[in-house]
């Protein structure tokens, strides 16, 4: 891959060299991480790709403020991961970090066609989580009216949405689906003024996208981000829905083979690795996101000069092994998309019964679907596409739980 490729630009390498020049002086984390490495010798992309990765486990070990790379007086805010699967990761932000994040988020809103005439309904949570405040700052930067309602309290959501005539909904895909179904159930679609939906935080299937877009009557945009790297707003899909543009003047993206750590060819699926080019409070170098995606070669039809990654297909740590077969939730998504009568929502339940593993797939079905036939088709495709016999369980729409945040898909009861 040449130094002049779409994804590797001289200005990015210059920024990385500048970051490496002082990183061990400023960051205790990287002082230990890069001990014994001649950072001044990093002169090419090949040199850079020899640096060790940063992992989430490393960041947890640095709790609470081991990632901080500036004096205390320069830190204006902290955000944190949820910590639901271990010690939380604390990320300090300088004023410049906050400004840069708002600028990236504003680009996302602009790419989605949001203007200062819009009224932006922000449902993601506020507080230590990055989502709510990030959406708000970006929308304010484009001059839109922000309704910072946060999650929950459905009656209040609809009162504000209808009385204030919200035009843009910001939500997780799970919560957007919950609101869409409730609007339909209450028969208040004619009182809703939404025209755009900016959705993030979790992977969602094409069927789920189509349901939300249809029931809300909006155009949807998939926004990307993670707490360790500012938060949501570092990339977004455009009107053409052919991947997500990311801001390569702020971030450098690599896609690697999750097993070998080596770069994969452009267009091939692998694990996304991110380096922050401008972050001050807690810069990250070669951070393994565990998100599965691909670099999309070529120019986008929308005309944006910013490069693209594909949709997030899942996470390497979503993987479970059943009877020696590796299963990702994304595979079940793809199968349900092909089955007539199946809807978008599903859950995977794995148990160890009578000495063997049993994987049950609960999935919602459309009204009027022939349940036995749909179950038989899901069973057939799972055996054909995954190589695994599953127990399919068709349920009615709405039977599976909805969430204001991310919806759990896999429940492994074997351990």
Describe the structure.
Keywords: Ligase, Nucleotide-binding, Phosphopantetheine, Phosphoprotein. Belongs to the phenylacetyl-CoA ligase family. Its EC number is 6.2.1.30. Monomer. There is one protein chain. This protein is α/β, with parallel strands linked by helices and 415 residues long. The chain folds into 2 domains: 223 residues, Rossmann fold, CATH 3.40.50; 94 residues, GMP Synthetase, Chain A, domain 3 (2-Layer Sandwich). It has 11 helices and 21 strands. The strands form 5 sheets. Strands 4-3-5-6-7-8-9-14-13 form a 9-stranded mixed β-sheet. Strands 10-11-12-15 form a 4-stranded antiparallel β-sheet, with no helix packed on it. Strands 20-19-18-21 form a 4-stranded mixed β-sheet. β19, α11 and β20 form a beta-alpha-beta unit. α5 crosses α6 and α10 packs across α11. The longest helix has 17 residues. It is globular and about 65 Å long. The two termini are 44 Å apart. The mean pLDDT is 91.
Question: How many domains make up the 3D coordinates?
Answer: 2
Largest beta-sheet details: 9 strands, mixed
Number of strands: 21
Dominant shape: globular
Question: Low-confidence parts, pLDDT < 50 over ≥5 residues?
Answer: none
CATH topology of the largest domain: Rossmann fold
The CATH architecture name of the largest domain reads 3-Layer(aba) Sandwich
> Residue-averaged pLDDT, rounded?
91
Structural category is: alpha/beta
**CA-to-CA gap between the ends?**
44 Å
> Which CATH C-level class of the largest domain is it?
Alpha Beta
Helix content: 25-40%
**Fourth CATH level, the homologous superfamily of the largest domain:** ANL, N-terminal domain
Specify Rg, calculated over alpha carbons. 22 Å
Oligomer: single chain
Number of helices: 11
Q: What is the topology, as strand order, of the major beta sheet?
A: 4-3-5-6-7-8-9-14-13
Strand content: 25-35%
EC number: 6.2.1.30
Domain AMP-dependent synthetase/ligase: 67-275
Family: Belongs to the phenylacetyl-CoA ligase family.
GO molecular function: nucleotide binding; phenylacetate-CoA ligase activity
């Amino acid at each position: 891959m040449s130094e002049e490729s779409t994804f590797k630009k001289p200005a990015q390498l210059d920024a990385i060299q500048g970051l490496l020049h002082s990183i061990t002086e400023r960051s205790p984390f990287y002082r230990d991480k890069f001990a014994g490495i001649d950072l001044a010798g990093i002169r090419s992309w090949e040199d850079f790709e020899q640096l060790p990765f940063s992992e989430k486990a490393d960041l947890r070990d640095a709790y609470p403020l081991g990632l901080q790379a500036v004096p205390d007086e320069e830190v204006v805010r902290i955000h944190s991961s949820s910590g639901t699967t271990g010690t939380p990761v604390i990320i300090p932000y300088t004023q410049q970090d906050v400004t840069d994040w708002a600028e990236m988020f504003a680009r996302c809103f602009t790419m989605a066609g949001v203007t200062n005439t819009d009224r932006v309904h922000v449902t993601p949570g506020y507080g230590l989580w990055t989502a709510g405040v990030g959406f708000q700052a970006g929308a304010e930067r484009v001059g839109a009216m922000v309704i910072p309602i946060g999650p929950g309290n459905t009656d209040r959501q609809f009162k504000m949405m209808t009385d204030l005539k919200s035009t843009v909904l910001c939500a997780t895909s799970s919560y957007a689906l919950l609101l869409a179904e409730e609007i339909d159930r209450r028969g208040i679609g004619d009182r809703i003024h939404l025209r755009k939906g900016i959705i993030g935080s979790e992977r969602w299937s094409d069927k789920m996208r189509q349901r939300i877009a249809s029931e809300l009557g909006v155009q949807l945009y998939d926004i990307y981000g993670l707490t360790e790297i500012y938060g949501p707003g570092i990339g977004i899909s455009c009107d053409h829905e052919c991947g997500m543009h990311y801001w390569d003047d702020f971030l450098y993206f690599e896609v690697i083979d999750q097993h070998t750590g080596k770069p994969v060819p452009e267009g091939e699926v692998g694990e996304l690795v991110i380096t922050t080019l401008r972050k001050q409070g807690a810069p990250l170098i070669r951070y393994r996101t565990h998100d599965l995606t691909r670099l999309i070669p070529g120019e986008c039809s929308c005309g944006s000069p910013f490069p693209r990654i594909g949709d997030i297909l899942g996470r390497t740590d979503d993987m479970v092994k059943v009877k020696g077969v590796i299963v990702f939730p994304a595979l079940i998504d793809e199968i349900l998309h092909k089955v007539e009568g199946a809807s978008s929502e599903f859950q995977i339940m794995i148990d160890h019964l009578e000495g063997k593993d049993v994987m049950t797939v609960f999935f919602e079905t459309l009204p009027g679907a022939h349940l036995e036939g749909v179950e038989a088709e899901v069973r057939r495709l799972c055996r054909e596409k995954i190589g695994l016999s599953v127990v399919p369980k068709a349920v009615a729409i709405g039977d599976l739980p909805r969430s204001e945040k991310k919806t759990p898909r896999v429940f492994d009861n074997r351990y």
